[in-house]
Amino acid sequence: MRMNGGHAVLESLVREGVEYVWGYPGGANLPLYDALPDYHPRLKHILVRHEQAAAHAADAYARVTGRVGVCFGTSGPGATNLTTGIANAWMDSVPLVAITGQVVTGLIGRDGFQEADITGITLPVTKHSRLVLRADDIPVAIKEAFHIARTGRPGPVLVDIPRDVLQQFIEFDYPKTVRLRGYRPPGAGDPALVQHAADLIAESQKPLILAGHGILLSRAWDELRELSERCHIPVISTLLGLGSFPGDHPLYLGMPGMHGMYWNNIAMTKADLLIAIGMRFDDRVTGRLRDFATQAKKIHIDIDPAELEKNVPTAAPIAGDVKTVLRQLLEIVQPARHEEWVTWIEEFRAEHPSIAIPETEKLLPQTVIKAICDTVGGDGYVVTGVGQHQMWAAQYYWNTKPGHFVTSGGLGTMGYEVPAAVGTQFGAPNSQVWAVCGDGGFQMTQYELATVAENQLPIKFAIINNSYLGMVRQWQELFYKNNLVAVKMFSPDFVKLAEAYGILGLRVTDKAQVDGAIDYANKHAGPVLIDFRVDESENVYPMVPPGAALFETIDQPPVPQPTRVPVQA
Amino acid sequence: MNGNKHTIVALVEDRPGVLNRIVSKWRQRGFNIESLAVGHSEHDGLSRMTFVVDTANTDVTQVVKQLDKLIDVIHISDITDQDMVYRELALIKVSATPQNRSEIIQIVDIFRANIVDVDRDSLIVEATGTEDKIDAIIELLRGFGVLEMMRTGRVAMLRGPRLTAPVEEAVEANSTPEIAL
Predict the structure, then answer these.
(1) By CB atoms within 10 Å of each CB, which of A356, A367, A444, B179 scores lowest?
(2) Domains of chain A
(3) Amino acid B97: pLDDT
(4) pLDDT at residue A562, rounded to an integer
């Protein structure tokens, strides 16, 4: 088949089973756009309003579907605008392929109009990248990009193609396989280490499982459950691991770390064995590293060998695909019971209802977020931004299923929620999608309401509007002597803003209106934005102060507060 | 061997930007690299590099693991504890007069180094050996006035038939789009 480079890119995407691309056209990638009509509707292009949104939408689509997300940007600012989204996917190990236009080959390195060295700029935040200088290389470059993005520890791959290369004609031949000498992601774990892990599990009296994003990426939730149930080991899930274990399971304990459950932080401190699976001992999980789980031996299973012993000394560091290693482990571990330990955790947990909501007539953000999470249930999706509302959503979306809680974990990108909700809804067109937004973060990407309206995506946006950059203010209150600087948020009238886009806007100012508004939004066929004017002063607890150890977790606010009523998870 | 110094040898794709990727990783992760030597290998399209890491300030296993993640790095290993030959080459421009030239030549002979350029007021010494040996000759030549010097950094190779950073054949691989969650 003879075709030009632009067609070759799109043909390659179709061969990879790509259905949606989020992007923005410009001078350098016009040949790509010129070819799009020839591939419609097999390949659908969604025009965003800023390239950052294209990357976030593709990122969320990937998290929800398990497929590779794809985004387009033009050269220069188009490409640099993608960078935040690429970095976000990098930190959270999300499979993403970004295809950027580049200035013509003769201009590269000569400061051409809209030139940016995007392979150089994204070097530290991509799993791989490539500048394609001959159209003949396009099929191989795209094939390799998808293979690298979705295998091993997933991540973003950038393919940069100059405009003249997109215009060259080639005889298209799509490779069936890739040959990469320097790329061999691990599969099975070292049997001797797996045996050692099984021995450690057999010896342990107080074991805990720490389940991370790797469980979801490797689709290993059945194996996780089997291990937990057979050996009677409680499961803690990291922020990105939420959904890897059933929320209503008696052995499920919720999230650990900076805003995790108090009982988890104490249990980790007392445990004699931590089985960390597909997670990377992030500082938000461990607290002060030298005091982290000092009494516990560690088993660490991760597909990325560089994560093993990076932060925490490990008795059994096992490099391998989580699902494969868990299956190896399940072949040899013996059933066990840890009644004393599990009972202790349950009793301790009952005494420390970490996510109790204060009893008050005020409209609290927790009340709103919990109500949304409850109504969404296991089948819907909750997408969040970054900050207080994110932590509350992580605390209250207890019953989430694999891939149904979409959040920016590692990079902590405010504004992720709006474009990520777009990607989520495209990935799950028949499901309910709630974007839980902060009033600050929402304003970073609110332009994407145009994409929502244009495509009539029935997303429900809940702005948890406390008129503050809540999490930053919380830090200023607690660690900067209440010196509140640049955190009071002026916002537009969000209801009118929604209306300006032709989106139904609602405002909720009273606790009594919450359920009705959520119900109304759910029944409305199109997109809805609700401006929840919540109490300004609430902060997120429990909290591990920055630099503190897990056993120093503050379970409840230091100042006297109204009685907090335990929440039934 | 050599205190805290670890010798790492890598086989990498000889493509534009590969060195940048490697150095970028060092910078990003805060690795402190003492020396780096890179050049063509016996295979077209592949380069070998040797670098030295001081373990006093850098976690050497992290260096190896992080670099191994780069797609363009085909093989990498820390060969410090193995039986190896390692050498460095230095060019040293020494100020020389007709009076002291023969004295310099004597030192050069003792170190089995070579004089590769002679001028009225200077000469260039080419020395090869371990870093200790090079340090020693430089120290002796300092008395005459070292005008300029250039060192290549260490190159290393395992003794015997075993290969230091062997070429691994590419394995055919394929991956299909994942199914929905």
Answers:
(1) B179
(2) 2-171 (3.40.50.970), 191-351 (3.40.50.1220), 357-540 (3.40.50.970)
(3) 93
(4) 47
